[in-house]
Write a sequence for this structure.
């Protein structure tokens, strides 16, 4: 079953975020991930208390590879850069096909 990472964030520090954005694709590719949605500014259909300004969806061939990507990212300085430069959510979900 495919694994998807959904990133739903607001950017607090653009310089830090741009550093993260320039370095993360190499790690995504290492785990066979590919962007499905990138840099999308969401069209809000139903408003809630926290509306993201930036949305990304990454597809991995399996849930296991998505989890391995998450674990590998946590072992690099990328996680600190991401956490300092954004606020929001990162969610891993399973595909249904």
């Amino acid at each position: 079953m495919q694994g998807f990472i959904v990133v739903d964030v607001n950017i607090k520090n653009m310089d830090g975020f741009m550093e993260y954005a320039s370095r993360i694709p190499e790690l995504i590719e290492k785990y066979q991930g590919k962007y499905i949605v990138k840099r999308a500014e969401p069209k809000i259909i139903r408003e809630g208390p926290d509306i993201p300004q930036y949305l990304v969806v990454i597809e991995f061939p399996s849930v296991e590879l998505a989890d391995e990507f998450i674990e590998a990212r946590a072992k690099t300085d990328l996680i600190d850069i991401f956490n300092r430069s954004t606020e929001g959510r990162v969610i891993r979900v399973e595909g249904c096909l």
Summary: The first strand starts at residue 3 and ends at 11. The mean pLDDT is 92. The helical segments are 14-30, 63-74, 78-85.
